[in-house]
Amino acid sequence: MSRKTLGIIVAVLGVALIVISALADVIGIGGGGFGFRQIAGVVVGAFAAGFGGLVAFRESSS
């Protein structure tokens, strides 16, 4: 698997985590209100999406 493919997969999973965390109450897996787990999911998802995008689209050094 190429570095670009791996980066895209990580970025997509990060975005999916953001969406699921943000909409947890709407889709019925939240506990009412925007709680700590949802905030953590959004933050971790954002880091994963950013890191994946960086890995996928950064110029190769070699």
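[next item in queue]
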Amino acid sequence: MTIALRLPQELEDRLTILAKKTHRSKSSYAREALELHIEEMEDFYLSKAILANPGKIYSLEEVEKMCGLED
């Protein structure tokens, strides 16, 4: 898949310098940044959904009883 991005000039300059210094492509850095950011955003929205609807909340006593750890 090909994506075209419009970057602010400063960011494009930084990306170009980094790619030249490391002999990697600008695309490889863009792909890496997207992978990391998408994973963080997926985690963020999953957490948000769980906090909005946490389901049943168990007390320690209930968990101990369910696991057969009662004193």
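[queue empty]
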